[in-house]
Amino acid sequence: MNLNTIHNVYFIGIGGIGMSALARYFVANGKQVAGYDKTPTEITKALQEIGVTIHFNDTVSEIDSKYLNSESTLIVYTPAIPKSHSELSYFISNDFQVLKRSAVLGEVTRQTTCLAVAGTHGKTTTTSILGHLLNECNVPMTAFLGGISENYNSNLILNGTEVTVVEADEFDRSFLTLSPDFACITSMDADHLDIYGDADELVKTFKDFSECIKPSGKLFVRNGLPLDGITYGIEDDSDYSAQNVKIENGSYVFDVQTPNGLYKDFKFNLPGRHNLSNAIIALAMSVEYGLPHHQLAKGLASYKGVKRRFTYQIKTDDFVFIDDYAHHPEEINAVHQAVREMYPNKKVLAVFQPHLFTRTRDFVDGFAESLSQFDELLLLDIYPARELPIEGVTSKWLLNKIENSNKKLIQRSELITEIEKSDAEVVLTIGAGDIGEEVKYIKEAFSIAN
To answer: What whole-number distance in Å separates Cα of residue 434 and Cα of residue 382?
Structure first.
């Protein structure tokens, strides 16, 4: 594919976080961009504000005629779009160039120095830290993020085209289309078993990804993973390791042990050792790329995070409201560790919306164990996303397995009322579904109260 011959790019599922970043990239590079999505969102609104034409009905008749020229139009779709989608069927049957988002991302990055972040957890935060560090060090680069950066209020950091920073997504094996110069693997916990079947197949595919790295490239792995590469960790014997870790005023202060010696006086403002681990791998990749540690220390201290990743919505002495995207038992464990570390003596209420019937089925015992750790729990119905219901797989089934005695299954419409009944000093909303749409209403209700 020669992107220089493409004038128009049409996205099916343009409101997806990864799709919208790619759409922004093409707008910035002078292409005409349009697309379809199922429903209007803040993401689609933001795209429309920069000139992207979007409609919300699955019908070819609403597509502008210039995007119906197969010679000059590239069609990009997300795997979340069903094969029965009429627009997708039309483009395929009329011999358009139709590619998954991951294939297009692979093509965009091929002519650049590519730094890729893989792993079942931590991709978005790590990618955004890495992109921010490179940007603060004036590297001419583009970073495609799987979330909205608090520093840039965008899922795209655009400062040149020599280097690309990308999330290497394991969902449907799409990361195998990449050929990075540097790549890291943060974790290989079982997930997406609807795609992989079992955990062994998932691990095998991560190993396949590690072989996609260019011959002169470098692989970074969290210490303990069954792969050879440059290791990283916290207070251990990794090649890159956080040492002398302290918490001061809610921030981590630490040194970094590297193969070239000890780099001192780093500060990182995100809570949770999982986030500190993400910072260490971003620093390791930046150092190996050749960036000076004093600039990296300054850049890390100014990093603000990603929306819906342990994002403080309200933070007062009497009441704290935090929102997080966690949707896997290990991610919920990480959120729990972070909130207990920051608020060791406070009562914590968690509101959780399970994401996908298959994930709930495959990890129900893990979810029950992780959710039982909170003082109180409000559980919402399963968010189906792309899936149809599975008999017997319900939030009530999950609730019955949770050992917390203070637990309740509720509807979204009851959410604020139920939170108001609690005397918890810390409230968490957790999940990858539409629970995120409730955050602004909760914030509004409790900002007035506090």
So the answer is: 10
Q: What is the CA radius of gyration of the chain?
A: 22
List the one residue out of 62, 80, 77 whose CA is nearest residue 22. Answer: 77
Closest CA to 157 of 177, 176, 139, 182: 139
Domains identified in the chain and CATH numbers: 3-101 (3.40.50.720), 112-301 (3.40.1190.10), 311-449 (3.90.190.20)
Question: Which DSSP category does 284 fall into?
Answer: H
Amino acid found at 344? P
The three-state secondary structure class of 431 is: coil
Share of the chain above pLDDT 70, in %: 96
Q: What are phi and psi of 134, to 5 degrees?
A: -65, -40
Note whether 328 and 364 are within 8 A (CB).
no
Is residue 191 pLDDT above 70, yes or no? Answer: no
Q: pTM here?
A: 0.81
Q: What amino acid occupies position 20?
A: S
CA angle 82, 95, 47 (to 5 degrees): 55
What is the arithmetic mean of pLDDT over 363-382?
96
| pLDDT score, position 195 | 61
CA–CA distance, 118 with 126 (Å, rounded to integer): 9
Which of 5-9, 13-17, 307-311 has the lowest average pLDDT? 307-311
- Name the helix (H) or strand (E) containing 352: strand 348-352
* Two tokens, residue 337: 């560790």
Distance CA 125, CA 146 (A): 8
Q: What is the mean pLDDT of residues 301-318?
A: 90
Helix (H, G, I), strand (E, B) or coil at 177: helix
